[in-house]
Amino acid sequence: SKYAGLDVPLELSERITLYWQGFPHLPQFVQGQFWRLTGTVNGIGLSTFSAFVAFLAYCHFALKARFWCVALITITVPMVLIHSTSGYVDLFANSFLSIGVLTLVHGYLFDAFDRGDLMGWGLFGLTCAAWSKIQLMPLVVFFFALYGYFYGVRAVQDVRHKRRIHILIGIAFFVAILPYLKNMMVHGNPFWPMKLPMVGELFPFALDTSAEGALQRPAHLQDSPQIVAFLHSLFEIGHPTEYGYRSRWVLDQGDADVSFRTGGYWWFAVVLSMVSMAVLAFVHDRKKWGHFMGAAFGTLVLVSLLPQSHELRYYLFLPLSTAGTIAMLFHRAEFKRPKVALCIMMV
Predict the structure, then answer these.
(1) Which end of the chain is more exposed for a tag (fewer CB within 10 A), N or C?
(2) Who's near 221: CB < 8 A, 6+ residues apart?
(3) Apex 288 CA angle, 127 and 52, nearest 5
(4) Backbone φ and ψ of 100, nearest 5°
(5) Using an 8 Å Cβ cutoff, are 172 and 226 in contact?
């Protein structure tokens, strides 16, 4: 409330206070502005909805993806639809991350790395994601590195222009990591209050979130490797199709047994989206198909290894980016292979 100038008393528990000290606050700032603008706390849901609409608009106007296509695919993902008007910040952060990811995909598939305007928006998306959700930071760093390679190495031959691009990407990256530099200076841990994986003992921490995260799983997956838990979650293996006391999919997938904190993408939509993206990419450019699908698979593996990857609401950029890629490719396939496009649309 302080970000919007609202005189609203707020008391946080000791645990939430620790998170508040270390997590970036961009979503809360935007929520505060909507609260102040609408005069009601219910207005905070507009922040997530606005970020999602911004993602759809960027796909349509900048990346030339069919609006109806990307919108229809994304809202068939239960977790996206549920979060689109909620006060949770997951879809807010992942909408911006998807802008960064899809800019890179567009540049590779359509040889558009010379579009400096798109690169700027992509870097803006990655920076906003870094300022929104601490769990996304490993992915933000990964995609910043890819921007440095594709925009600053492959797409540019002139040494001076290449240097300017690297400087621009470096500035954007510095801005993106400012909240984490602040944490390092104040708390001695860039991801305060959490214990870092592998090197956690080298930094002070207040919460061992890795140990706690292991408990945020279904009982039968307590001792499973993280990638196994992720696959069970992504494809909703063994999940019931209905519950007697709650909806099949809820905001955080809690209050359940076999599907506790897992699932939410609807396994049929996951499989169909993956197959559709692979087919359309093959039709678009057979030479690039292998490298593109390898990169998509590699990204999926990277996500699967991250702590709490089975909690799919943290990584909503996966269905958003897949939907955006399908919509971009579908637009071209309509003219190049209309029969294939028709089959994809009917399915």
Answers:
(1) C
(2) 228, 229, 232, 262, 310
(3) 35
(4) -65, -40
(5) no
